What we know:
single chain, about 45% helix, binds magnesium ion
Amino acid sequence: MASHSDHASNEIALERQKEVLSRPMTEARMMANAIRALAIDGVQKANSGHPGMPMGMADVATVLWTKFMKYDAADPHWADRDRFILSAGHGSMLLYALLHLTGYENMSIEDLKQFRQLGSHTAGHPEREEHPAIEMTTGPLGQGISTATGFALAERMLAARFGKSLVDHRTWVIASDGDMMEGVSHEACAIAGHLALNKICVLYDDNSISIDGSTSISMTDDVVKRFIGYGWAAKRIDGHDPVAIEEAIKFAMRSRKPTLIACRTIIGFGAPTKAGTSGTHGSPLGNEEAAAAKALLGWTAPPFVVPAEVLTPWRAAGARGEGARRAWLKRLAGSNRRAEFDAAMAGELPAAYGVAMDALRAKIAETKPALATRVASQMALDAIVPVVPEMVGGSADLTPSNNTFVKSMGTCLPGDYAGRYIHFGVREHGMGTTLNGLALHGGLIPYGGTFFIFSDYCRPAIRLAALMRVRSIFVLTHDSIGLGEDGPTHQPVEHLASFRAMPNVLVLRPGDAMETAECWDVAVQHKDGPVLMVLSRQNMPSLPRDHGAENLSARGGYVVIGAAHQRKATIIATGSEVAIAVEAHAMLAKEGIDVTVSSVPSFELFDKQDAGYRQEVLGEAPRIGIEAAVGYGWDRYLGDNGTFIGMHGFGASAPYQKLYQHFGITAEAVVAAVKAKL
Ligand SMILES: Cc1ncc(C[n+]2csc(CCOP(=O)(O)OP(=O)(O)O)c2C)c(N)n1
Ligand SMILES: [Mg+2]
C-alpha cells in the first residue's frame, strides 16, 4: 500500500539515496551489499518476505558484525558470546544473510534458497529452535527489544556471581519503528534504564516507514528523548555512514547507561524507485526493480552468488572472535568455579535441591498446615531458593501479595546485581519479556509474580515463551473469585481455560500446601516451556491424602479419597475447590453415598498419564467437576453425563465465602449434583 505521505518520503529518500551512492565505494559498502543482494534474492525466490528492512539496515549490521560484536561463527554455543536480537523479526533475511556470510554451520546458500519453506531453518520470522545462533524467536513487534532487558540483566547477574573473567558480554538489538510503538518496549526499556543495564545497545532502524506509509501518520514521539527519559544514552546518526556507525557503537560501548542509536536509514536502500516506501516493507521487489537495485548498488553477481572478494572478508569477520573464545575456554578450564558454571549454564539443579525438597515435604506432612497456596508457595520458595543459586525472582509490584520474596535473595539494584530479587514495578508485560530473556540467556531459572488476572497483561510474553519452550515461571496469585472484595476486575474466570488451550504451557493449580510444594518441584525441574503457578489468596485446609514420598501432583491428577465400597460418583476438582469436594464427600458419606474425590492440579500432566491410570482417577461412575472458573475444557473429563459446578460469567465484589455461596460453588451444590445422578 502506498499512502499519500509515502510519496513524499519516497522523493526525499531517492534524493538521499543518490547522495549516499555518490560516496566512494568501500569494502564495507560492498559487504553490506552482499546482505542486500541475498535479501533481495531470498524474498524474490520465496515470492514472499520483507526486503526493505535488511536493505536499509545492512550498513549498520555490517559494521556491528565485522568490527564490534563478540562471536565466533564456529561455536554458536559459546557462553560468553555477545547476544544479537533481531527484534524487527520481519527482517529475518538480514539475520540469515549474516549467519551465512560469517560462516555458521547449517546456514548454507541452499538454506537461503529455502527461505520461508516448510522444514527450512530460514522461516518467515527467526525461530529460535531452527538455528543455535538465533537467540530468540521474533516477529511479534516489541518482544525482541523487551526480551533484551532480560538477556542483559542475566549477563550482569551472572557476572556478579562468577566474575568478569567468565561473564563479560553485550546484548545488541536491531529494532524498528514498530518495536518502538509497541507498549511493551516502554515497560522493558524503562526497567533497563532503571537498572542501568549499560551493556545493551539498541540499533534503531529509524526509517520513518511502517506498513501504512510514513510514520508521520501515527507517530510523533521523539524516540531519542524518550529513551533519555528512561535513563538511557541516546543519539541519532546517519545509518548509511560506516564511520558514524562505528563512532556511535564505540560511544555505546563506553556508556555507563544502556544505549539507543537511532540510525537514520532508507527502507529498501538501493531500490531505484521503491526505496523509502512501505512498498519495500513486505513484498518482493519484483524482477525489474530487483535487477535495477543490484545495478544501482554495483552488484553484478548472479542471484545467490557472493563473489570471493566479498565472501572472504565476511568469513574472516566470522572467525574474528576465535582467539577471544579460545582465551575464554582456557580461563574456564583453569577456573575453580568451572563445575558450578557449567551446571548453571546447563540448567542442572544442585544436589542440595533434592534434600531441601524432601525436608519441605516432610515438614508439611507432619504439620499439615492450612494455608493459602500463595503462602504455601512462599514456604516452598523459602526452602528452594537458598539452595538453588540459579533462581532469581521478582514481582510486578505485588511482592507482599504474591509472596515471592525470600529474605536471603537480596535485591537487584542499579549497578549492583548480586541481589537476586527484582522489583519489576507495575510492568507485567515487561516482567514477562525480562523473565524470558533471563531464561533464554542461560544460567538462571527466573520466576515473576503478579495477580492471575494480570496474566492478560503479559500473555504475549507467555505465548512466546511457550513457542520457544523457555523456562520462565509465572507466579500467579489471587486465582479466582476467592480473592473476594476486589471484585470482578480482579477475578479471573476464563484464564485457566485459555492457558490450558495454549500449547507448551504447563498450568499448575495446587490445592493445599503439599500440592504447592509438589508443583514447585515440577516447575523448577520443567526445562522445556513456561510454567504457570496458579495460587489462591484464601486459606484452605490440608487435604486428607497420602503424604508418602511420591509427588502425586507430578501425575497431574490423583485420587485424594477413594470410595470405600462402590464408587457412585467421582468428584473432580482443582486448587481451592478440592476442599469443597472433600467436604461434599463427608456429607455424602453420612448418607451412605460412596464417592471418590480426585484432585487435578494440572490437566497437561494428567493427560500424559496412561489410560489405565486416568481411568482410575476419573472412574466409570458419573463425574462432577468443580472449579471456580468457566467450564470450558472440562468436557473431556466430565463427558456427556457429567455436571460442572463453577462460574458462568464474571464474578462480583464481596467477601469470598459469600461469593462461593452466591455462585453456587458449594459442597451442598455438589451433594445435590451427585444425588441427581443416582
Ligand atoms: C505485535 C505486532 N503487530 C503487528 C505486526 C505486523 N507488522 C509487521 S511489521 C509492521 C510494521 C512495520 O514497520 P516497522 O516496524 O517500522 O518496520 P519496517 O517497515 O521499517 O521494516 C507490522 C505492523 C507484528 N509483526 N507484530
Ligand atoms: Mg520502519
